Amino acid sequence: YPLAPEHPYPAQQRSCYTAVAHFLKNAQDYGVDPKRIVLAGDSSGGTIAASIAQQLVTTKDLPQLRGHILLYPFLQCLDFNLPSYQQNRSVPLLTKELAIRHGTVYISGRRDRANEIMANAHVPQEFMRKYQNWINVELIPEEFKSRGYVPFVPGPVSEELFTKCQIIFEPTFSPLLAEDAIIQKFPETFLLTCEYDIFRDDGLLYKKRLEDNGVPVTWVHLKEGFHGISMMIGMGLLEFPGTRKSLNSVIQFLQRF
């Protein structure tokens, strides 16, 4: 898909949706059963896969996905101080600051105001409360809070920044903010989270939302895993035990179809 900053959001979603829609519509021309298609993505690709899944469940003229696979996806822009963001803020390969700076380029083409966003200065508390049933530290199991987590105390909020950031609260950008009526229609989902990943809690919260809405979820959590671990297959000394474990879990999920 086209990359930022030359092609800011939503160019990536639109490009991927166009490709997926074309393939679904013409799957038989490629020798593929349209009823057995599973959409997958890792990291921001997982975000796009979740976004496309939302769009497809409201589209009546295309075959529906059989399932989708999300590997350590980014899923929300509301709270950048959940436990995993605190615990793993400096963990390679994706630090908190790097992720947010990439995000600002993604939406505006510029690396600006990242420090304010890192402190949740882009979200008024009344707006945060609107989504507290979906994004809330109390929804995260206690076992994930024991390592270096301090309850976040909100600071000053910039209303001007909040206004500029409206686009990042769209469900296509933050899939965790999709309405229940959409999520209830989702296909069976495979979700991988990693302990040493800033996006871990996004995945935990998404898992809960899917399950609360009756969507079957196969969840794999790598206790020694980190962001990007699944892509290190075949890299010799850089391949970690969790790399093959994660991909074998994906294969087992797909074999059921």
Automatic annotation (TrEMBL):
Which PANTHER family did the record assign?
A: AB HYDROLASE SUPERFAMILY PROTEIN C4A8.06C, ALPHA_BETA HYDROLASE FOLD-3 DOMAIN-CONTAINING PROTEIN
Protein name, UniProt field: Arylacetamide deacetylase-like 3
- Which keywords belong to this entry? Hydrolase
Looking at the record's lineage, which domain of life comes first?
Answer: Eukaryota
Q: Which residues form the active site?
A: S43
The scientific name of the source species is: Thamnophis sirtalis
Homology family: Belongs to the 'GDXG' lipolytic enzyme family.
Keyword Hydrolase included in the entry's annotation: yes
Read off the SUPFAM superfamilies from this record.
alpha/beta-Hydrolases
Q: Name one GO molecular function term.
A: hydrolase activity
**Residue intervals of the Alpha/beta hydrolase fold-3 domain:** 1-119, 170-229
